[in-house]
């Protein structure tokens, strides 16, 4: 039986996920809408995002192993996430995907899932 690659494998595994996270968070920290809801020390956030994206893309369940079920919406409820912030987050991720060279069908599938997730996080209009 032939093994179908996961998106995690298709983009290049752990190194690609780390590169994506490292391309993404400087953009988040520089974005006027996003900077206020992220801590000054972004390293722990980057580590959690690396674990989460690894799992989200079909790699090892590193996030769940360390923190339990992701419960994305519940974990983000303490932060005011507006539609504009969701779009800003997506814009930063779009640029990061470009920077690390994730293209083609795997990017399209990943992008669709990220858009859904970002919009699901919205918890306030203002």
UniProtKB/TrEMBL annotation:
The keyword Endoplasmic reticulum does not apply. InterPro entries: GlbO/GLB3-like, Globin-like_sf, Globin/Proto, Hemoglobin_trunc. Gene3D superfamilies: Globins. The keyword Metal-binding applies. Pfam families: Bac_globin. Keywords: Heme, Iron, Metal-binding, Transport. Belongs to the truncated hemoglobin family. Group II subfamily. This is Globin. It comes from Laceyella putida. The lineage of its organism: Bacteria, Bacillati, Bacillota, Bacilli, Bacillales.
């Amino acid at each position: 039986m032939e093994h179908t690659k996961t998106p995690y494998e298709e983009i290049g595994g752990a190194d690609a996920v780390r590169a994506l996270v490292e391309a993404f968070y400087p953009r988040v920290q520089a974005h006027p809408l996003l900077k206020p809801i992220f801590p000054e020390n972004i390293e722990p956030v980057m580590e959690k995002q690396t674990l989460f994206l690894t799992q989200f893309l079909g790699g090892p369940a590193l996030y769940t192993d360390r923190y339990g079920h992701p419960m994305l919406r519940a974990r983000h409820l303490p932060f005011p996430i507006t539609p504009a912030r969701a779009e800003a987050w997506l814009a930063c991720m779009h640029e990061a995907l470009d920077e690390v060279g994730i293209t083609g069908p795997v990017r399209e599938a990943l992008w669709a899932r990220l858009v859904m997730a970002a919009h699901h996080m919205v918890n306030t209009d203002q």
